[in-house]
Amino acid sequence: MNHVRIQWHKPVREKPISSGFKWLLSGLWQDVAASRRLIRRHGDAIPHINGAIMLPVAIAAALEGRPWIWHLNDTTVPRFLAHFVKFLVRAGHGKPVAASRSVVEYYDLPDSSDIAYPPASIPEDAPVRGGEVRRIGVMANISPGKGIEDVIEAFAIVWKKRNELKLVIGGRILENKRWYYESLKQQSRDLGIESAVIFDGFVENPVRWMEEIDLFMFSSHFEAAPVALIEALASGLPIVSGEIPPTREILGGCGVLTPLGDAEAMAGEVLRLIGDNAARAELSAKARKRAGEVFSLEAISRKYCEIYSGLKKGKK
């Protein structure tokens, strides 16, 4: 068996940088210098760079002539930075690894780029979800762009016909975006469903949280590889999601997609599934199967072993 030793480091600047512009002028190169020292210290170790924000490490590895793995998992970085990432990838001698096909397209990476999805723990005892629906869930940081207002609007339509249901919203309430949380509370009041909408706050254990959910809704407007959807698949939840390329990719036909922002369409699919136990059970079984084959810790570990082995043999 091959063994991999992993050490985590975060370059520390010698002086604090007060703004992004100053960082570009001086802090960037301080971080590059710190990263070069770390790379030299660890001999033939392969730097594994996580996210475009770790650009200084990629520059340092290139300057040191060291092969690297750059895991790109964000599609919200500024375009100029995405172009610089593409330049380093094409000029370097390392290997980009994308969190999804959408990430490949965002950074204009080679079509042959490896994809390693975020992994999920697969609960062994997750039931097939074909029984009564009481709690509908959505999990996301309470932040604009996550489309929670679309879910609330769709749920209000559902609730008019099934007022025994609850909508449970799990996710961290960000203090710098608390106005968005307050707007969602106000929306619930305006729609007359305040008593049926529960804000659970930060979800420390998604697996346990999803055990209490019967059907999952998702309507984020932008994602790279939506972890909440992967965890919902792993829990065997029937899923109704707004359609964007990453949600279509992650679900792989194992959930129901509706036009993004179309509350009527989303509500219609939710009501259809609530009334069809067999359809929910079928989606649940397909979700578990896909999660086990594509997103399990074992599947993603095998993928990274292949990537590292290929890099050590001089492949790109």
Q: What do these coordinates show?
A:
The protein has 316 residues and is of the alpha/beta class. It has twelve helices and ten strands. A six-stranded parallel sheet has the order 7-6-5-8-9-10, sandwiched between helices. It has a four-stranded parallel sheet with strand order 1-2-3-4, sandwiched between helices. β2, α3 and β3 (95-98) form a beta-alpha-beta unit. The chain is elongated. Residues 1-6 and 11-19 have low confidence and may be disordered.
Give the structure's gist in a few sentences.
The protein contains twelve helices and ten strands. It has 316 residues and is α/β, with parallel strands linked by helices.
List the helices and strands and how they pair.
Layout: H1 20-41, E1 48-50, H2 55-63, E2 69-72, H3 79-91, E3 95-98, H4 101-106, E4 114-115, E5 135-139, H5 148-161, E6 166-170, H6 178-190, E7 197-201, H7 206-211, E8 215-218, H8 227-234, E9 239-243, H9 245-251, E10 256-259, H10 263-274, H11 277-295, H12 297-312
Parallel strand pairs: 1-2, 2-3, 3-4, 5-6, 5-8, 6-7, 8-9, 9-10
Helix content: 40-55%
Q: H/E order of the elements?
A: HEHEHEHEEHEHEHEHEHEHHH
| Shape type | elongated
State the low-pLDDT regions, or none.
Answer: 1-6, 11-19
CATH class of the largest domain: Alpha Beta
Major sheet description: 6 strands, parallel
- Rg of Cα set: 22 Å
Number of domains: 2
Structural class: alpha/beta
In whole angstroms, how far apart are the ends? 23 Å
CATH topology call of the largest domain: Rossmann fold
User: What spatial order of strands do you see in the largest sheet?
Assistant: 7-6-5-8-9-10
> How many β-strand stretches?
10
CATH homologous superfamily classification of the largest domain: Glycogen Phosphorylase B
CATH architecture heading of the largest domain: 3-Layer(aba) Sandwich
Bin the strand percentage.
5-15%
The helix tally amounts to 12
Let me know the average pLDDT.
88
